């Protein structure tokens, strides 16, 4: 499998794919969140469904923007990316969610002398990524632990992890199934706080969606693509070690042990399925609860930057009718 470069301008300049040729844009560089897509591709399950699927890598255009513009047929989206786009009126609908548990967490060095609880983060320095979601999350955790949400922020992107390891900052956010695994491989002694323990709703994560109109005009292609995707993730959930090797062979990873370790954590932590919840199943109540939190926190805003008002109902944000086709 080869991932080709992608930009919004290039996609819009090209004609849309025919029904049996579909594309999906990724939300980030290839990683274990995308394992089911890669397995379905490499196992030939997309081919068996009569589809020629192009998995497009993360680029300078967000996957939600590409999907909303009609530049791709499907998109893998972060929960925040999807909810922000949908709240802003993007004509997209979620079909799937990958992670049944929250993999994010707030992390700090275990030997930090002044941090034992979220309230201790008051006055400390946070290495962040530049989104309003981060402040809403961290402030909620600190305040629910009895502290005052008064802390400094430096925006470092992925440089946050090296900054934390060196002690240049006091805390950051990480994904347990990726950055957390990498820290373990590097021998870093770090501790963490779980968002849900301090008043932040636990969302599901990693949505796959399509344009809302596509559900009406080409439901058979949607169902075929999603069923092959479901098969890929279900197989990965049952065969995590083998799935890791498939992903390693398909990608370009500087450290293959990071992929193996990530799939081990995903398996042990029951992130893809808890054994009773089918892979990919969206929980309407959890989606509603997180969307309400984002509205109430002022994270979801209009194009002119004004906070959006809670619509009262988000059941139209997703559709899993493809499961019955």
TrEMBL record:
<dbReference type="InterPro" id="IPR027939">
    <property type="entry name" value="NMT1/THI5"/>
</dbReference>
<dbReference type="GO" id="GO:0016740">
    <property type="term" value="F:transferase activity"/>
</dbReference>
<keyword id="KW-0408">Iron</keyword>
<keyword id="KW-0732">Signal</keyword>
<feature type="domain" description="SsuA/THI5-like">
    <location>
        <begin position="31"/>
        <end position="243"/>
    </location>
</feature>
<protein>
    <recommendedName>
        <fullName>Thiamine pyrimidine synthase</fullName>
    </recommendedName>
</protein>
<keyword id="KW-0479">Metal-binding</keyword>
<dbReference type="GO" id="GO:0009228">
    <property type="term" value="P:thiamine biosynthetic process"/>
</dbReference>
<dbReference type="GO" id="GO:0046872">
    <property type="term" value="F:metal ion binding"/>
</dbReference>
<comment type="function">
    <text>Responsible for the formation of the pyrimidine heterocycle in the thiamine biosynthesis pathway. Catalyzes the formation of hydroxymethylpyrimidine phosphate (HMP-P) from histidine and pyridoxal phosphate (PLP). The protein uses PLP and the active site histidine to form HMP-P, generating an inactive enzyme. The enzyme can only undergo a single turnover, which suggests it is a suicide enzyme.</text>
</comment>
<dbReference type="InterPro" id="IPR015168">
    <property type="entry name" value="SsuA/THI5"/>
</dbReference>
<comment type="pathway">
    <text>Cofactor biosynthesis; thiamine diphosphate biosynthesis.</text>
</comment>
<feature type="signal peptide">
    <location>
        <begin position="1"/>
        <end position="19"/>
    </location>
</feature>
<keyword id="KW-0808">Transferase</keyword>
<keyword id="KW-0784">Thiamine biosynthesis</keyword>
<comment type="subunit">
    <text>Homodimer.</text>
</comment>
<keyword id="KW-0663">Pyridoxal phosphate</keyword>
<dbReference type="Pfam" id="PF09084">
    <property type="entry name" value="NMT1"/>
</dbReference>
<comment type="similarity">
    <text>Belongs to the NMT1/THI5 family.</text>
</comment>
């Amino acid at each position: 499998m080869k991932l080709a470069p992608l930009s919004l301008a290039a996609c819009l300049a090209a004609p849309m794919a025919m029904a049996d040729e579909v594309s999906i844009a990724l939300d980030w560089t290839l990683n274990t969140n995308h394992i089911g897509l890669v397995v379905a591709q490499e196992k030939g399950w997309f081919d068996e469904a009569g589809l020629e699927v192009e998995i497009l890598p993360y680029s300078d255009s967000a996957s939600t923007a590409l999907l909303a513009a009609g530049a791709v047929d499907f998109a893998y989206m972060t929960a925040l990316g999807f909810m922000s786009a949908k709240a802003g009126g993007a004509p997209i609908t979620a079909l799937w969610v990958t992670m049944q548990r929250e993999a994010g967490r707030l992390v700090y060095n275990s030997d930090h002398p002044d941090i034992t609880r979220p309230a201790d983060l008051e006055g400390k320095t946070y290495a962040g990524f530049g989104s309003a979601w981060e402040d809403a999350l961290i402030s909620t955790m600190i305040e629910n632990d009895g502290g005052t949400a008064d802390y400094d922020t430096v925006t470092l992107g992925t440089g946050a992890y090296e900054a934390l390891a060196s002690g240049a900052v006091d805390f950051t956010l990480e994904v347990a199934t990726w950055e957390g695994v990498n820290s373990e491989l590097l021998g870093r002694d770090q501790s963490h706080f779980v968002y849900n323990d301090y008043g932040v709703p636990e969302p599901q994560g990693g949505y796959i969606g399509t344009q809302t109109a596509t559900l009406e005009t080409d439901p058979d292609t949607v169902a075929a693509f999603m069923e092959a995707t479901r098969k890929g993730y279900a197989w990965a959930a049952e065969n995590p070690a083998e799935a890791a090797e498939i992903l390693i062979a398909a990608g370009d990873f500087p450290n293959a042990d990071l992929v193996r370790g990530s799939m081990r954590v995903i398996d042990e932590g029951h992130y893809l399925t808890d054994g009773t919840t089918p892979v990919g199943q969206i929980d309407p109540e959890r989606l509603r609860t997180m969307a309400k939190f984002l509205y109430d926190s002022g994270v979801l805003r209009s194009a002119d930057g004004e906070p959006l008002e809670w619509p009262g109902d988000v059941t139209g944000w997703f559709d899993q009718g493809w499961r019955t086709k």
